[in-house]
Automatic annotation (TrEMBL):
The lineage of its organism: Bacteria, Pseudomonadati, Pseudomonadota, Alphaproteobacteria, Hyphomicrobiales. Its main location: membrane. GO terms for molecular function: transmembrane transporter activity. It comes from Mesorhizobium mediterraneum. Belongs to the binding-protein-dependent transport system permease family. FecCD subfamily. Keywords: Cell membrane, Membrane, Transmembrane, Transmembrane helix, Transport. It is a multi-pass membrane protein. Pfam families: FecCD. This is Fe3+-hydroxamate ABC transporter permease FhuB.
Length: 667
């Protein structure tokens, strides 16, 4: 009797927890909805206005064509995301899988952005097909990159992060080139549930119904994926076909959500995770309760953003990102990781440690700096400046070039320090969220005050970068700091930074143009003061890092070996974290948060043969400086008289480069 009562009691308790998980947000959302309706229209007119709308009454029009469709789409989109997350997590055996973290949303978004700006005729048959094509392509790219590591959770999330950052860079470049549409595009991309009529609701509902039926038809074969592939095959199912079918339903459904309302972050992660924690153990239970939880969460979130006192309404997707990022940190300790084999992606190269190669690199960088200074493009075409012309051009070009080379050198050194400290060749300030943390601190400063000075921005960025590093270090506290969880925690920090930028861009702030340029990684407004700050920081960093050589030689050996050789790991890591945070903050301030230089430069230095600790530091600095100088020069000349931000151009090159590295690693 006792053994039967225990499971039965847990089952009953789990059922009540699930009801509470869905019911409490739903009741609160219903109360806020009723209060909003009463402010708009008397209760005795609700039914009449729905069936026979008086088009001469603005209140009834708002009720019929704005309020009710928005309520309906929040419920439908939330349910769709809950089902999507459940399917993806089951198919990929990954508790962190959802459309944002595996790149589906980013692909759908960039496809719709391209179509909206340059090929609106593609939208004539509906936005859904364009979103589906983009989401499918980006998801296929993620799966192809993760295949070499047997689709492990970490490999999929990291691949999704890289694909998402690349697509985000492309979207940001498109919006920077089309400033007149940038605010509207940012609001849409941030997940706005604002409706104008019921066309979106009526178009989305059939997709959700078909996807729901298909998901439950696949229930039995999907449930067998809990077994090994051999076990599933012995029971008469084909795991590859099942995964493909489940992924097709999930990608289609998430792409439809993007087409309907933009990117709604983390609901697809939160709903399945919460119902699992509340007691939904079986796949059938999760497929029933997760859509209900997703609908209730998005409904409540949408009602809350409408009552928050803000100058303009915060998009619902931004609000869900604020909730989802902390949830991701909470789930990271429960993630099972596989042994790190990413180091295999680095080809074996001939080792070089001679300083003669560094001198050759310095000469090449000096020649590039001179070329960037004197070679340009004007109304008459390509032109090499004379000595007399150079006197006029120097005040314009010199600060930009100095900022670019200094930022590139700082990011290159910071990336090398991070990879040596963590023992992970994928670590970089941009990937681990350090750049995101610095930009988050600067964005918060924009919110807090109207008078933003350079010293204040440096201080705010430094606080944000150190806070990001502290959270990342806390994530790996119970395990070696090289653990793959460090990479995944960067997803949360980067997401929160993106959410804050979306809030500012949706606020109508008069500094919007400056903010967009900075977020894009622009050197347009570089001043002599910026150049001085960046150059002094870079020189100081290069003077200090040689003192850390012994630590950098020992740390890759592992925590036990490092302790055995007498290193005080806490003190060493704190010093290294400061050496990473300060230059990353300054580089983020002067060049913006979008760049893959911190990842590319150390890899290129190793590919050139620099293997020991000290030469790669200087080689990474040289390579990083050359990358950003070249990106700034190319952005200034390629599409003259318009310009491409250097950070965006570097990110658009760095994203595919990282994908190539991962593709080589899988082979």
């Amino acid at each position: 009797m006792q053994s039967t009562a225990g499971p039965r009691a847990r089952f009953v308790a789990g059922g009540w927890m699930l009801v509470a998980l869905v019911g409490v947000p739903a009741v609160l959302a219903a109360y806020l909805t009723a209060a909003g309706l009463l402010r708009l229209l008397p209760a005795d007119m609700w039914w009449q206005s729905l069936g026979a709308t008086d088009f001469a009454d603005p209140r009834q029009l708002l009720y019929r064509d704005a309020f009710l469709p928005r309520l309906a789409i929040s419920l439908l989109a939330g349910a769709a995301l809950g089902l999507t997350g459940t399917l993806l997590q089951q198919v990929l055996r990954n508790p962190l899988a959802e459309p944002t973290t595996i790149g589906t949303n980013a692909g759908a978004t960039v496809a719709l952005t391209i179509a909206t700006l340059y090929a609106p005729w593609m939208l004539e048959q509906g936005r859904e097909w364009v979103a589906l094509a983009g989401g499918a392509l980006s998801t296929l790219a993620v799966l192809a990159l993760a295949q070499g590591r047997s689709f492990s959770p970490v490999a999929i999330i990291i691949s999704g992060l890289v694909v998402s950052l690349t697509c985000s860079s492309a979207s940001a470049l498109l919006m920077a080139a089309n400033r007149e549409y940038s605010e509207e595009l940012f609001i849409w991309q941030s997940g706005s549930l604002i409706q104008n009529g019921d066309a979106v609701v009526l178009g989305f509902a059939p997709w959700l119904a078909v996807a729901g039926i298909a998901a439950f038809v696949l229930l039995r074969p999907l449930r067998l994926l809990d077994l090994s592939d051999e076990g599933a095959e012995s029971l008469g199912t084909k795991p590859v076909v099942t995964r493909l079918a489940g992924m097709t339903v999930a990608v289609a459904l998430s792409s439809m959500v993007v087409a309907a309302v933009g990117v709604i972050s983390f609901v697809a992660l939160a709903a399945p995770a919460l119902v699992r924690l509340a007691g939904a153990r079986t796949l059938r239970q999760r497929m029933i309760w997760a859509p209900l939880a997703g609908a209730a969460l998005l409904w409540l979130t949408d009602r809350l953003v409408q009552v928050v006192p803000f100058t303009s309404e915060i998009p619902a997707g931004v609000a869900t990102a604020f909730l989802g990022a902390p949830l991701l940190f909470l789930l990271l300790p429960k993630l099972r990781t596989s042994p790190d084999r990413d180091g295999a992606m680095l080809s074996s190269v001939r080792r070089r440690s001679g300083w003669v190669y560094l001198l050759a690199g310095l000469l090449a960088m000096a020649l590039l700096l001179c070329a960037a200074l004197v070679v340009g493009r004007g109304a008459a075409g390509w032109h090499v400046a004379s000595a007399a012309e150079l006197a006029d051009l120097l005040p314009l070009r010199a600060p930009r070039i100095a900022v670019a080379v200094s930022a590139g050198m700082m990011l290159g050194v910071a990336g090398t320090l991070m990879q040596r400290m963590t023992g992970n060749p994928m670590a970089a300030p941009e990937v681990l969220g350090v750049s995101g943390g610095a930009s988050l601190g600067i964005l918060l400063l924009f919110v807090a005050t109207s008078d933003v000075s350079r010293p204040a921005m440096i201080a705010a960025g430094l606080v944000g970068a150190l806070a990001s590093l502290a959270m990342i270090s806390q994530t790996g506290r119970r395990q070696p700091i090289a653990n793959d969880r460090l990479l995944l925690s960067g997803v949360a920090v980067a997401t929160m930074a993106s959410a804050f930028s979306a809030v500012l861009l949706a606020s109508g702030d008069p500094r919007l143009d400056t903010l967009i340029g900075w977020l894009s990684g622009s050197t347009y407004r570089a001043t002599a003061a910026d150049a001085t700050i960046a150059a002094v920081t870079a020189i100081a960093l290069l003077a200090v890092v040689p003192l850390t050589i012994r630590w950098l030689e020992i740390l890759p050996l592992g925590e036990a070996a490092s302790r055995g050789l007498g290193l005080s790991l806490f003190r060493v890591r704190v010093i290294l974290l400061v050496l990473i945070a300060v230059p990353t903050t300054v580089a983020t301030l002067v060049i913006g948060p979008l760049s893959f230089v911190g990842l590319m430069a150390p890899h290129l230095a190793r590919m050139l043969g620099f293997q020991r600790a000290l030469p790669p530091l200087f080689a990474s600095a040289i390579v990083g400086g050359m990358i950003l100088v070249l990106a700034d020069w190319a952005g200034r000349t390629l599409i003259f008289p318009w310009q491409i931000p250097a950070g965006l151009l570097a990110a658009l090159v760095g994203g595919p480069y990282f994908m190539v590295l991962m593709w080589k690693g899988r082979q």
